[in-house]
Amino acid sequence: DASWTTGTIHVWGAQLEQQTKTPTVYAKTAATAITTASQGMVANTDLRVTQAATVNFDGFANFVTQLPIQFEGSTVDTIQNILTTDDPTVGDGTFKLPNLAASATRYLAVDDTSVTNIDGVGLSISAAALQVATTEIAGSTWGSGSGFTWTFDAGASDPAITFADGAVGVGTTTPTAVFTVAPPSVETVTAGSTITANACGTVKQITGGAVTTGTTNTFTAPAAGQAGCCMMVVSTHTNTITLDANANFRTAAAGNLPLTQYDAVEVCSTGTYWFQASAVVANQ
């Protein structure tokens, strides 16, 4: 009916007539609905709704097409969004729309190779980046039964956590204890130098000549981010390396700490200064 311009269009069926032009779909009113079971929409025809309207497929158990479905949008032109499908050869596939709350909207956008946007609760994709709302995650099991490593892209040196059988490792991919922190490489101490505080929770090995550390900072200058950091300092060289006692490194006897080969002492930080946390253990 050419007089239909807006409102809801109810598509009840279609029929072919003896005519020379391309068959078209007939829109029937409820009073003249096609009820014959064998009648239906004619294949290879276009159903075009080019004005503001709603199309209801009342009475159809399934809508089957071998042709692409085109979405015109608000502007009638030669550009459309087209929905197509590969030829299914294994079994039926289902794309299901969820039962959303009233007026709820969910967006799905894809590029040529991947999903770029999904608006979800707990898990979403924004600009092709996966975003996880950790507040939505309660108890959960990670992994598939074998060890794995999480690597964090944090800069020039990426930290990693390894989960193994009954063990967790930081900086090591082969932890053998319940919790293992890999020690850094041995550091060479020179006269007046500062020992790098990069071994929190593990062993700090030092080597060098018969020298004394810096008199202002024996270890990396105290900072809030170091609060709670403890290191087991071990001298590996035959020379005696002396840890200078100063305002930023407080020793038990308020004196310098000489370490001969394999001597060990634990030092910790409050965030405002370093302090000797154990007696020097000789020849470890």
Would you give an account of this structure?
A six-stranded mixed beta sheet has the order 13-14-15-19-20-17, with no helix packed on it. A four-stranded mixed beta sheet has the order 9-10-11-12, with no helix packed on it. It has a two-stranded parallel ribbon with strand order 1-2. With 284 residues, the chain is mainly β. 0% of the residues lie in helices and 27% in strands. The chain has strands spanning 7-10, 53-56, 69-71, 81-83, 108-110, 115-118, 123-126, 129-132, 148-151, 160-164, 167-170, 179-181, 187-189, 203-208, 230-235, 241-243, 249-250, 257-259, 264-269, 274-276.
Offer a few descriptive terms.
284 residues; mainly beta; six-stranded mixed beta sheet; four-stranded mixed beta sheet; 20 strands; disordered N terminus
Q: Please list the strands of the largest sheet in the order they lie side by side.
A: 13-14-15-19-20-17
How does the major sheet shape up?
6 strands, mixed
- Principal-axes geometry comes out as elongated
Arithmetic mean pLDDT: 78
**How many strands appear in the DSSP assignment?**
20
Tell me the radius of gyration. 37 Å
Q: Report how far the terminal alpha carbons are from each other.
A: 98 Å
Instruction: Pick out the low-confidence regions.
Output: 1-44
Strand content: 25-35%
Q: What is the tally of helical segments? A: 0
Elements, N to C (H/E): EEEEEEEEEEEEEEEEEEEE
The helical percent reads: under 10%
